[in-house]
Each structure stands twice: as C-alpha cells, then as structure tokens.
Amino acid sequence: MQQSNTYIITFSVILTVVLGLLLSGTSQLLGPLQKEAIALDNKKQILGAVIPGEQIAAMTPKEVNEFYSSRIASVVVDISGKEVTEQGGTAVTAETVDIAKNYKKPAEDRLYPVYIFHSEGNPDDVANYVLPLYGAGLWDAIWGYVSLDTDMNTVGGITLAHAGETPGLGARITEPGVQARYEGKTIFDESGDLVAIEMQKGEGKDYSGDPHEVDGLSGATITAKGVNNMLRNYLGYYKAYIENKKSSTAVAAL
Amino acid sequence: MSAETVENAIAKKPAEAFLSKRRKKLVSDPLVDENPITIQVLGICSALAVTTQMKPTLVMSISVIFVIVMSNLVISLMRNTIPSRVRIIVQLAVVATLVTLVSEVLKAFAYDMYKELSVFVGLIITNCIVMGRLEAFALGNKPYDSVLDGFGSALGYSWIILTVAFFRELWGSGAVFGIPIFEYVSGIFGPDFKLATNGLMVSPVGAFIILGLIIWVQRTKTGYVEH
User: Are strands A198-199 and A213-214 parallel, antiparallel or unpaired?
Assistant: First the structure.
C-alpha cells in the first residue's frame, strides 16, 4: 500500500512545498526584527571598543541606541585619509557602509568609516577614534573594532567577533579577558613606523613589557594570525587618516 | 523497560484517562531509568558544548524540548501517510524545519543568545535523541502519547545538561546564572579569603568529568548495569 513511486514523489513534493512556505514565511516575518537586532549588535560592538562590556550588558536596547547617538559621531574616509560624503551621487554615512562588502573591493576603492567617541553634546571633545577591522579567521570571517586614544597610537580597547571559529579555541577572541590584553598597547614603534600589535603563539606568557605584543591563544594559532593580519591591514589602510589626525593634534598641543 | 511499556500500550483500551499510569510513565521513564544522556548516551555532543553556563543551557533545553515535542507530534500525525521508504528523509525535513524556526526566532528576539549558541542550535538536527524518538516511538503511536514521550525524553536531556551546567558554571566561573556566588561567599570570610575557580570546568573536559560523576551516582542508586 501507498508505496508506489508516484505516491512517494507526490508526498515529497507536497512536504517540500509546505515546509518551504513555512520557512520563507517566517523569514519574511522576522526579517525586519533580525535586521534591527544585527544593527543593535553592531552598535554594541563599536561601543565595546570604548566602554567596558559590563556597562553595555546592563543597558537596554533603547539605552544603547540613545547612548550611541549622543556619544558617537562618524565620518567616512578613503584610503588617502580624505573625507568622503558622497559616492556616485548618493550620500555616504558610516552606518550605511558595509565593511564586509567593501572588503571584496581592492583596498584603494574601499570606503573606510571612522566612529568618533566624544563627550556628550560636544562632538569636538573627542575621546577615542574607533576603526573597524575585517579579515579571515580559520573557518570564516572575523571582524571587530579597535579604538585609538587621541594620540592615535595607544589602543583604548578592542572588540573582536567571528562567524564560525571553533568554540573554545578560536572563538575565544570574543572573550573580554582576551580583548583586554590589547588595552594600552601601542601601534607605532619609537621611530614612528606602523608595527600594529601581534598576538603571539602559545599562551600564558607575560607581555606587559612589550608594547606591540600580546599573549596568544593556545590551540588557535591560525585564528590569532588572522587577527594579526586584520589588525595590521586595517591600521595600514587607515594610516593616512591616522597620520593626519596625529599631526593635527600635535599642532593643537603646541 | 520502556520497550515493555510500549508493547503494553498497543493493546487498545477505550477512553484512557488523560494522565493514566501508562502515560505518566511515558514522561517519567526517560527522566532516570531510560535517560537519553546517562543511560542511552545520546546527545553528548551538545551536552559537552553548551554547558559552560546556565543561561545558554536553559535556552538550549527549551529549544530541544520544543523541537522534540513538535516533531514527535507532526510525525505522529503523519505516521499513516509517510511512505516508509523515504521516512528518514521526511523526519529529517520536519526536524530541520523546526530547528531553523527556533534559530530564526532566537536571531530575531535574542540575538546575543543566538550568537552564543551559534552552531549548536543547528546541531539539534543531528541530536540523536530527536530522530531516535521519531523512529522508535512517534512512527507507531498516537499523537498525544508521542507528545508525552517526546516531552519526557527532552526533560530527561534537559535536567542532565542543566545539572552539568550548574556545576560547571559554579566551579568554573564561580557563578550561577551569572550571579557571582563565589565572590559573595568569599566576602563573608573577609578580604583575604578567596574561593578559586577551576579552569578545567570551563573546558569540555569538565563536562566529561561532571557527566561521569552523575552517571556514577545514578547507577549506584538504580543498580543499572550495561549489558
């Protein structure tokens, strides 16, 4: 009974259509909510580079949005550090720049958003510059945000995220303890060359004496290399902007 | 043991009580005597992976309960129409759909949790408990009984992973549900006293140890011997 090929095929087709409709319906229904959740998560990551994670965790989504809009200003620059306000006739804002999409273009053609963390109500009183990072981990994309103090040299904080690193190994880059290792490190050496910060192989050593090295992740050497490359590349892309800011703050200090 | 109960169940009785003794057994058996993790040793992968903290473990438990109960219900409703030659694929399609639903809902309403559980929500599809219950029970039993059976198995899974997570978070991070118990306890004994956390508990090895201890205690009490 019921075992003819026609029956099986009909049954499979109906099942596929019903399940397919169910899934695409849910996806349509929840899509806007998911977009909002992702945008909020992005803001949390940007803020994570400048304020402690526990403070963000304690905030409601509404508070995060308010805090973000009152404390973060943003500009978009190109590889030569010049500000970009429109491209191909459409206005460009940092929030609309998709880092992952830009990553696929050659470095010279990309747009580079900069998020500026300032004191409340005064966009000129800058505390930190937050730069996005994007690169490849072991299995999939990794990304993050690094914040630089106004000397454009000292790292104020970093947030790192990943799409599919191994839980317990590479995925540990999201841990606050790992990200805290970057705080206070510097990206330029004494002669003024950009050296970025290297995560070392092995774990458990003390690198507090070295301004350009941080302790590694045991069992996640390739992810750590990805983080290193990403940090070096993106600081390189922003170098013109960083040098600009550096000389202008030096002038202001005089 | 449950094999006997299932066979007894086939003898039809008119209008069985809503929660008859047999039906209660469907729920209670998988809690201890036929526990999917400690006796059948299924679903170990996620039991090791998600149990570092209570909160994600709780979300995982709820997701698994939802998926098992719903898939048992759906498959049991369709059991007389499913062609036996493609039944595994049909089961898989239903389970995969339910898991995707759970994943989408988490992504929309609890994005942080979605990120934390990441791949393990998707891996509910391959959780042997789900397909195991479909094959062993839902295909041959009425919807209501199947729902009870699924609920029992999912609860059996849940209480074990929650217990593992409790000890792992307590000993590994010194907290329960993110509440810093160790800090509080250390505070009672003065500033110099500090309860140390054990890094081993945070790694999957910790889950193996806790799970082993649970199985040991349970088998000592029930006298279960593998044969």
Answer: parallel
